[in-house]
User: What shape does this take?
Amino acid sequence: MKRMLSILVMVLLCGLGASAVYAEGARAVVDTNRLRLGESLTLRVIADFKQARVEMPEVEGFRISSRGTNSRMQMINGQTTREVESLYLLMPVRAGAFTIPAIPVTGGKSVVYTQPVAIQVDERSAPSSTDQPWNVTADVSNSTPYVGEQVVWTFRFQTAARFQNARLGKPAFDGFSSEELGEGRAFEQVINGRRYAIHEVNQLLIPQKPGTIAIQPASLSVGIVTGRSRRSADPFFDDVFGGRNVVEQKLLTTEDLTVNVRPLPPYAGAGSFSGLVGQYSLSASLEKETVKAGDPVTLTLTIEGTGNIRDAVAPVISLPEGLKHYGDTPVEQIALGPNGWQGKKTFKTAIVPLEAGTVEISPVILVWFDPASKSYRTASSGPLRFVVTENAAAEQVDVFQGGDSGVPLGMAKKEVRLKGQDILPLKVNPDAVRHAPPMGTTRLLAWLGGPMGLFLLAVLGLKRFTRDLSAREKLSKRAAEEVRAAEKATSDRELFYAKLHGALSAVMGALAGRPVEGMTGEDIRRIVTAAGGSVDAAEQCVAILDSVEAARYGGGTEGEGGRKEKVQALVRLMKEVKA
Amino acid sequence: MKRVLIFLILLLLPITALGSDLSKAFYEGVSHYEAGRYDDALERFLSISDQGIENGKLAYNIGNTHMQKRDLGRAILWYERAARLMPKDPDLIFNRNVALAQVKDRQEETVNPVMSVLFFWKKGVPLKTLQWLAIGSGLLFWALLALQILLRNTPLKTAAALWGAVFAILASTAIWDTAMEARIQKGVVLPEAVSVRSGLSDTATELFTLHAGSRVVVEQQRGGWVRIAFAEGKIGWVKQETVGVI
Assistant: This one.
């Protein structure tokens, strides 16, 4: 028996030992050992013990992106095993032969290592054993733009395979202001006799500073449909409900891009540079050629073109002396086209001449940088003239200037004088000397709390009154009931006297307004007279008490008529008191 | 009995005499004002105010006199004092607006959007009106409740409950506003222009300038200086005599 036991213990220990060895394992698994640039591989680090922590090292030739950790528990042949799986996406950055080194996995105090894994990365154009029919690219319309010049970044996904759940991860575009150009487009193209579906996404970029700016790769997470599994043995159901697609999840990445942003050359021309970069034109017009002094005439300036037109500000207008001008809010008709922002911006200015004569406004100049010709260009409106005629009422016109127009007008603000009717007269009521301070918190609380106090007092009084009333009512009711019961029991001597005693007590209680027990003749006299009853009535009640006591202790000899008479005496007493 | 009567008459005599003196000063002030002697008028009106008399009409008259003297800061100060006592008076509203239109500094109202939506009904309701609304609704509520208890009438119970909710809102708002009114001291800039400084000295950095009639919140008083808040982010110190407390 002992021997059997020791064998059993040994077996159990061996089993535990095996389990421990198994529990400390860790392995690295990749979905492929050979890939091309632009593709990615999935690395799974699996540890067979809980609370495993993977310390992922740098891997030469790859960018690593963690995709989370999950754990699961299994029970096989009565043994429980735990697996912690950490998922990584490895994107090759150059071609060559690389090795994923042994990855340390810590759990508790022990550290275990995975086996190294060799990976071969081929060029993008290299023929693939699997001949993968998909490709992603990214490029820019101009890799050497000027600061402020619009550049279009294009991402293209080309595939001959069916796909689903595509999700594009755009780069951050640091150093640029960026705007999405529409919702992208999809079209088909035949390349080398093979039909490809092409999906394009465009982004408008405007470089903000000169220098070399790197655009990070874009990544496309996509499920490539590689086959179709049957759902049932009967093809009819597959036709009706459709089979299940076999999908292989891929993460495809583009190459890094580098944009060399050139600074704008120094400007040394006449006028001031507007800050606009692109292709522009300027037009200017006056609303009318003749205007009366004091009446406004509108000058309209329109800047139209392609580029950073949204940043356009009103060109400087040099007005002669004696004119006032008021700028209006610019009107924009700008839209995002395939080449970036384009449209026009209109600036309206109301000009008010104060004196008669001919007014000539100096040409309005717009200077912008044209990246196509790599030079600054200038557009001028030409001189604008209008004639101001005399206006009889002009001298009386007061025109006030809003804001700083930049034009010295030499007009001082008028002092606001108080006139007779500016303010209403004094109040002469005699109560103007009565002290009437504003209501403070204490007074307000008193006003709000006062009615509540009154209410509570009223309720308390009412309650007391109704309580007394209800006690009297109850006793009167009880008295009436007892009298009726005694009236019914006149034929039964014992019952009658019991009821009569009860009726007498109840009637006295009703008269006194409180329950009365163990009363004497003197008590009865006092109660009846206090309640307004006559002395006769009191004496009759005392007689009733005497007869009740005589009957109860000495045995009564009264007939039925005498009993009824006693009840009637009580009834009369109650009526008398009520009256 | 006679002695008690004589005692009462003696007790009332100074009050009557005071009342007649005040009335005399008041009517003298009105006469001086109408004759264009605004300094004399102001002296009479202020002598009444100095007796501790708080009255909306008196404050309005003092405001008018300052307006005639072209002392915009003090005119607005007294109009604001009058507005606490008779906020709905049309003459006061008119004259106050005339005065406020001449204030150079634009006052930006800082309104809490949540509170303005929750208490939309308070807009345009002066504190005095709100207080009397609360008191009136309280009287009605307690009366309804008492009637309901007396008559044991169910519809009255519902009406009392609904009116109780109205009363609770009005009363709590009135109490809160009254407490805030007492706690938050408001003031008006009196001189033509005053430099608001970062500290309690004339050499402290000048933060901004306020002009006569600008309304401020007086936050603190220390060593002859007051800390004022004009708008969000516009806080500083000015000399105490340059700000009149409403």
User: Anything to note?
Assistant: Residues 131 and 175 of chain B are 8 Å apart (CA to CA). The mean pLDDT of chain B is 85. The radius of gyration of chain B is 23 Å.
